[in-house]
Design goal:
Largest sheet of chain B: none
Helix content of chain B: over 70%
Number of strands of chain B: 0
Strand content of chain A: under 5%
CATH topology of the largest domain in chain B: Four Helix Bundle (Hemerythrin (Met), subunit A)
CATH class of the largest domain in chain B: Mainly Alpha
Structural class of chain A: mainly alpha
Number of helices of chain B: 7
Number of strands of chain A: 0
Largest sheet of chain A: none
Shape of chain B: globular
Radius of gyration of chain A: 18 Å
Oligomer: heterodimer
Helix content of chain A: over 70%
Shape of chain A: elongated
Order of helices and strands of chain A: HHH
Chain lengths: 104, 167
């Protein structure tokens, strides 16, 4: 087996990012689309921490970027869930194809 | 092959497999549960990368709070039934092409950089991710972003209540 290095971690985070983008494009349910978005944010966090560890091991800037990304993701999830609940109250569905009031 | 390498490959396989299961499971509840497994695997990677505090924060905030919120909403809206699969084949093709191009570009860019490939792993050394050093830096150099994030949380809380309440 190879020694695990930066390259392998970058491949894993890139694969997670790809799966998040794919899920965001193909899912029609707002909750699962939001879950794909969380997958993307986590892959970005993994990238920040890996670069911080391997490229600048004495500094902590990557760790703080990841920390603030986690904080912003929590706030974003709260607001998005409120919007989803409001949409469900108006449309009785959270399928994005049903929410077309502003389309025409 | 040391125990750290075994952990590394185990966590990597677990993360990839669970992310695939998030995408292909039709029931939203199963998707949420597989996503929690992904977060546990990523937290294990954080510990291997010397970010112990961030691993715990990731578990508490993501797997503890956000995923419980998602599960709660799914149960509230009664989405337990299997969702109908995606009808539009072109959207799937577009998703695969977009994500695959990104994957190819990023992987080839990293491969062509000798500086990055030759970085060897120095796992489990150093104490940079522990609470003491993180806290000292957070309250010295990152004070303004820290306070700004508190304002962000306040506005997000007010916004969530205002958007979510009944008229």
């Amino acid at each position: 087996m190879m020694q695990p290095g930066l390259y392998h971690i970058l491949f894993i985070s890139t694969a997670l990012f790809f799966m998040g983008v794919y899920g965001f494009f193909t899912r029609r349910n707002l909750v699962t689309m939001l879950m794909s978005l969380e997958l993307v944010l986590n892959s970005v966090n993994l990238n920040f921490i890996a670069f911080n560890k391997y490229v600048w091991p004495g500094k902590m800037d990557g760790l703080f970027f990841a920390l603030f990304i986690i904080a912003i993701a929590a706030a974003e999830a709260a607001v998005a869930i409120a919007i989803i609940i409001n949409l469900y109250r108006n449309h009785k569905s959270i399928d994005v194809n049903d929410a077309e009031d502003l389309k025409y | 092959m040391s125990i750290i390498e075994i952990f590394f490959w185990l966590l990597s396989g677990l993360a990839i497999f669970s992310a695939i299961m998030v995408l292909i499971s039709k029931n939203p509840v199963h998707s949420v549960l597989w996503l929690i497994v992904v977060f546990f695997a990523i937290s294990g990677h954080y510990i291997l990368l010397n970010a112990q505090f961030l691993a715990i924060v990731n578990l508490i905030v993501y797997a503890g709070a956000i995923m419980v919120l998602f599960l709660f909403v799914i149960m509230l809206m009664n989405l337990n039934a299997d969702a109908d699969p995606q009808k539009n084949v072109w959207l799937k093709v577009i998703g695969i092409v977009t994500g695959g191009l990104l994957l190819t570009v990023l992987v080839s860019a990293v491969r062509s950089s000798n500086d990055l490939v030759n970085r060897s792993a120095e796992l489990k050394t150093g104490s940079i991710g522990l609470i003491k050093s993180l806290g000292i830096t957070l309250f010295n150099e990152y004070t303004v972003p820290f306070e700004l994030s508190s304002i962000l949380f306040l506005s997000a809380m007010v916004g969530a209540v205002v958007i979510g309440k009944k008229e």
